[in-house]
Design brief:
Elements: H1 12-26, H2 31-38, H3 42-49, H4 57-67, H5 76-85, H6 92-99, E1 104-109, H7 120-132, H8 138-154, E2 162-168, H9 170-173, H10 178-193, E3 198-203, E4 217-221, E5 227-232, E6 237-240, H11 243-259, H12 263-275
Parallel strand pairs: 1-2, 2-3
Antiparallel strand pairs: 1-4, 4-5, 5-6
Helix pairs in contact: 2-3, 4-5, 7-8, 10-12
Length: 278
């Protein structure tokens, strides 16, 4: 049987799965043994251990009883709650597992540079700002920055996906971290646009009501050509696989691209903004 190597540093969900496997193997149990004790299928156990399925509170409480750690500081219930209410929105860790194997990514962002295009310095400023507001802890800030770096690294593979990025003009006009951080970030966008597997477009303020999205949207095309949509508000993320709702989102994305500036015009706008950065 092939054994998938786990990287507990990849995400909170990956750390959860790795610890579940470690406790199981320490007792000499197979996935079938644990499944019988927890009243889940072995397929479900495998999916949680490898990070393909997010843990639920019900699953976590069952695991705590089986391993005799319910009510302790090391309980899976506690870890699951931390995943759901920590620095990552619900649904996002699962989205990232699909992002790492997608053949096409379509991203739309408002107000800040999309995560996959952020420099480490830009990402750190955003995370530290959230700490100062009391939204997350310093530990969660470190986790957020590390998690983003892992996401970016996952796209640097022998056959990288096509990445389409459409940004609202506010993304490049809003200064984050001061002139130096912002200049380096804008330079990173220009470098991104030069890659053979990317398309970068700015949706200018001038398109007005023709902007098709009011919230950030991520659309993935998987190897089997199926589609996944992830959209989020300030406090919640939603992962959608239903074609009846995802296909219209793809249509809206294409409509937005038609209204946005071309890549050449977008890069020219970014360079113009850079000239205004001391």
């Amino acid at each position: 049987m092939n054994r998938k190597e786990l990287n507990p540093d990849a995400s909170p969900q990956a750390a959860y799965g790795a610890r579940l496997r470690s406790l199981r193997e320490a007792r000499g149990w197979t996935q079938d043994d644990l499944a019988a004790r927890m009243e889940y299928s072995s397929v479900h156990i495998s999916a949680v251990e490898t990070g393909r399925k997010p843990p639920t509170l019900r699953f976590s409480r069952s695991a705590d009883k089986v391993f005799g750690i319910d009510g302790t500081a090391d309980s899976f219930d506690r870890e699951c709650r931390a995943i759901k209410t920590g620095s990552l929105l619900e649904g996002f860790p699962e989205y990232v597992t699909h992002e790492g194997r997608a053949v096409e990514l379509r991203l739309y962002e408002i107000g800040i540079i999309p995560g996959l295009l952020q420099t480490p310095e830009y990402a750190r400023v955003l995370a530290d700002s959230a700490v100062r507001r009391g939204a997350i802890t310093p530990e969660q800030a470190d986790e957020r920055v590390s998690f983003l770096a892992n996401r970016q690294a996952a796209l640097m593979r022998p056959h990288p996906p096509m990445v389409f990025v459409t940004m609202d003009e506010s993304c490049i006009c809003r200064t984050v971290g001061g002139p130096i951080v912002m200049d380096n970030q804008l330079a990173r966008l220009v470098e991104f646009a030069e890659l053979p597997n990317t398309l970068l477009q700015v949706a200018p303020y001038a398109i007005g009501e023709r902007r098709t999205f009011d919230l950030p949207v991520n659309l993935l095309t998987l190897p089997d050509r199926s589609l996944i949509c992830y959209a989020e508000s300030q406090a919640q993320g939603n992962l959608d696989r239903e074609s009846t709702s995802v296909v219209p989102m793809l249509t809206a994305y294409h409509q937005l691209q038609a209204e946005a500036l071309s890549q050449a015009a977008s890069v020219a706008m970014i360079e113009q903004v850079r000239k205004g950065t001391p």
